[in-house]
Amino acid sequence: MRGRDGPAGFLRAIGEARLITPLRSEGGHRRYSRYQLRIAARARELVDQGSPIEAACRIVILEDQLEEAQRINAEYRRAAESSGPPTA
Predict the structure, then answer these.
(1) Which domain does 20 fall in, by range?
(2) Mean pLDDT rounded to a whole number for the chain
(3) Nearest to 56 by CA among 41, 35, 37, 36
């Protein structure tokens, strides 16, 4: 996916693939959050390793969902441990 468009072209491509949706400045320029740039960097790694852009975007989404599920699961475990065993 490297080409004459460089990083801006890649960001547009993953936007078209609906991985990230940038905000727009008053002048119409794309604005990306740090989180979006981190997601884009991971997609770039996968594309550089030979994954098609659509596959890279899907992988990044699944990785993100897994990370969130693991975080929620850890919160539930901590809550369960702090409440102690049920009393009869």
Answers:
(1) 6-82
(2) 89
(3) 41
Q: For the domain that residue 34 is a member of, what is the CATH number?
A: 1.10.1660.10
Per the model's pLDDT, the better-predicted residue between 87 and 50 turns out to be 50
Q: For residue 63, what pLDDT is reported?
A: 96
Task: Name the pTM for this structure.
Answer: 0.75
| DSSP secondary structure, 10-76, as one string | HHHHHHHTTS---EE-TTS-EE--HHHHHHHHHHHHHHHTT--HHHHHHHHHHHHHHHHHHHHHHHH
